[in-house]
Amino acid sequence: MKKLWHNCHVATMQDGKYSIIENAAIVTLENNICWIGAEQDLAHDHYDETNDLNKAWVTPSFIDCHTHSVFGGNRSIEFEKRLQGVSYVEIAAQGGGIASTVRATRAATEQELLNSALKRVKSLLKDGVTTIEIKSGYGLDYENERKMLRVIRQISQHLPITVKSTCLAAHALPPEYEGRSDAYIEHICTEMLPKLHAEGLVDAVDAFCEYLAFTPEQVERVFKAAQNLGIPVKIHAEQLSALAGSSLAARYQALSADHLEYITEDDVKAMAASGTVAVLLPGAFYFLRETKYPFIDALKQHHVPIAISTDLNPGTSPSLSLRLMLNMASTIFRLTPEEALAGATIHAAKALGLQQTHGSLAVGKVADFIAWEIEHPSEITYWLGGDLTKRIIHQAQELKF
Fold it and tell me: For residue range 265-277, what is the model confidence (pLDDT) as tens digits?
């Protein structure tokens, strides 16, 4: 089906810039863009459908490249306790923290996890997210990681959204492996990953490299196992301490290194050389009231692509709006609105290995875009919260809510 979308202005986000086309038109054929440019240059043709966008500004739709959207329960009570002065250590000693989410996720059925996840993902979809990455990591044993990954695979069957699935079994140490972290890593590498990969449940492998999670040596074992299976890797690194996890990820040509509050210039150089994307997560920074800022200047100086994501999770970033994260990336991390928008489009696509098909508006790419009723693309980052009037198009189909 050939469709014309016209009477608009377009910020294509090619090369991470607005790359504006005024008085533009887009032609889509089936799911993809087959022509884009100034409407005056559009050749006369027959279209199965014509859509007047009423002078809207069109951008690529959002890509949320780091989420933990599937989980059981929530940790709002812990949030309240922290604000009352109870420390994270005390909460953990009381059975809280990630252990509480693991218990709730293990106790939930596959259908219960799916039902709760669909509500959260639908909020992101309404916000303009049409591609999302979702991690496992709250099961921490084969059956429950498998359960989470199966739920992740089902989400796109219920909502018009593209979903990438990441295995984060190396997220935390499960209670049954207390004091035996090396044994758990061995179990991930020799049992869990091969089986989950064989079922077609894994698009990427992630690991949490931190003093309260896993060492760089342990994470490297996970990366080697993933590499042997032909699965790309990602990493949670430098969130709380400098362990050079991002440099380790770069040696394995990781798609991305995420968080990065304690990143060094050597880490940045390694990422620049490998093409690894820096994924910044301002929601977690804000929610945890962190004070150590990522080395933004070095990332820019060495031309490391910077992506922005919600890090949607129950403990440290219960965020349901990627657009709000763009504002936080600008106000907290000092990115320009243009850089922030690139972080949720073309750079986020690269963080998922999708830069050839998603993240910018160009001939041959998937027709995922948003027509915003705004006066300039900077407004997308400018407005705090709310629901900006817009039309969301996924694979050349306008979504209705």
Answer: 999 999 999 999 9
